[in-house]
Amino acid sequence: MRVAILTVSDRSARGEREDLSGPALRALVEARGWQVTQTAVVADEREAIRAVLCRWCDEDLAEVALTTGGTGFAPRDVTPEATQQAIEREAPGLAEAMRAGSLAVTPHGMLSRGVAGIRRRTLIVNLPGSPRAACESLQTVLPVLGHAVDLLRERPQAEGGHRQMSA
Q1: For the chain, N or C: smaller number of CB within 10 Å?
Q2: For residue range 65-78, what is the model confidence (pLDDT) as tens digits?
Q3: What single DSSP character describes residue 110?
Q4: pTM
């Protein structure tokens, strides 16, 4: 599977802080045997986030686009809003599952505003900004991402996977 990772952080975009979440997600994705095709770091700016996500999806540069950062309550946390502007269809079950999984670890899990959705044939998933929380959230949804992409890409194996899950 082809995966893109977008880190959203003012400080990392300015070079004031090393991006730790993007590389942590990359290691997790590559350990699964998937390929990271795109990475970027942008400031907490709605249009910058939206533009990168739209380009990755519209140019079919990834089957899954992960964002890390900008999903909390701080005034500059606008990743969910930018993602809402980019997606064509929501995938609320993924965001709900990640919040539930995070809530089992910390009460702060309920403060995540991350969303998930589809643009064209690419799945976009917002993850928290800390490396640990980002990886924990991704691990919650990893078991279904392959099937989700198979469905989006209308691959023949998608239907077989669907029957297996409901059996």
Answers
A1: C
A2: 999 999 999 999 99
A3: G
A4: 0.94
